[in-house]
Amino acid sequence: MKNFTMTQKKWMLSLHILFAAIMLGTSVTFLILSITVASTSDSVLILSCYKAMHVLAGTSVRVSVIGTIVTGVLLSLGTHWGLVKYYWIIVKEVLTVVAVILGPIGMYIWTLKGISMLTEVGGESANQGAYVSNMLWLFIGIGLQLFSLLAMYLLSVFKPWGKRRTS
């Protein structure tokens, strides 16, 4: 692929940052909603939080992940950075896999499971242990998602470890 012009690179980088910001903002929203779920006994509020997270998982999380991946790959291919030339880019690619598993897949499944547990048996979960376990997995997933996103931001700024040695 031919390298981007400076203007093309700036536009692509702007899109990449925009999608990454949406992903980070949505993850922070998930954190706030999950803290609300853990700190209230209001079943209507809990169900509303799960439904909001589920909608976000099916919309902005998916779009931001896809947009970030596409623009990131295009930036790598359209600039001198490449896909595997630098260690920091390889680490970002691994963290992206984590973000994809946790974001559009994990958050979607855990929120759907939470909704179905809350709406079964007249709003009361048939198995309180399974409900708490699901809520814990969701909370852990959100924490790991935030950690991976913040790590990717830091890697993009500091670009540690340098270039890989080619054989």
TrEMBL record:
Q: Which organism is it from?
A: Paenibacillus plantarum
Give the top-rank taxon of the lineage listed in the UniProt record for this protein.
Answer: Bacteria
Task: Look up keyword Transmembrane helix and say if it applies.
Answer: yes
Protein known as: DUF2269 domain-containing protein
Q: Which residues cross the membrane?
A: 12-35, 55-77, 89-110, 130-155
Q: Keyword set for this entry? A: Membrane, Transmembrane, Transmembrane helix
